[in-house]
Amino acid sequence: MRALFLLIGLLLPALWPAVALAVEARPGDLLFVSAGQTGLSAAIDDATAREGGTRFDHVALVADGPGELQVLHADEKGSRQQTLAEFRQDARDKQRQIVVYRLRAAPPQVLADAIATARTMLGKPYNTAYVLNEDSYYCSDFIERAFRTHHVFALQPMNFRNPKTGQISQHWVDLYAGMGMAVPQDLPGTNPNDMAATPALQRIGVL
Fold it and tell me: What's the whole-model pTM score?
């Protein structure tokens, strides 16, 4: 028995850092979801991933709600609201990781304004072309607009080329050919990986 307690005592310090990384989200936080290996997720990662660190293909905004936290975001089902529990379960089902980011020293009004703006955008369809318009949104576009009044995030030229090969993946070629348009390389836009690297944000930990 003494040997068992000794073993547990030796293991706990090694396990504690992993436990300590778990965090609680709060209103105004941004939830970045790790990228998958296939389909749209892989295509986004192929074009926008940065060297080192977690790679993301989705971002959402935490909001307060009656009884539990809500998540406001735009995905393939449109601009919508879910409970935090539902959002986390969706990530688990896809074997994705959720990482919490928070604005550095943001006045409460900035977060309140962003949440209020995001709620006005709910119900719009998903923007499958990623070319900015006022009638549909994609995930990072939804977040940029929510914080736009306070100039937290900046639009920048969109990139659809793999940074290592310089080639546009077949996913994007086929997607835009099906819509009868050219790949919108260098048009203004946003993406989750660049957004996560914004100096205004700090990484809090894994949800």
Answer: 0.82
pLDDT tens-digit map of 43-77: 565 555 555 566 999 999 999 998 899 999 999 99
Q: What is the DSSP string of 95-143?
A: T--EEEEEETT--HHHHHHHHHHHHHTTTPPB-TT----SS-B-HHHHH
| Cα–Cα distance for residue pair 166/176, rounded to 1 Å | 18
Q: Yes or no: say if 131 and 141 are a contact pair by the CB < 8 Å rule.
A: no
Other Cβ atoms within 10 Å of 48 Cβ, number: 23
CA 167 to chain centre: 24
Q: Which one, of 152, 156, 184, lies nearest residue 168 by Cα?
A: 184
The candidate with the shortest Cα–Cα distance to 121, out of 105, 139, 109, 99, is: 139
End-to-end CA distance of the chain: 35
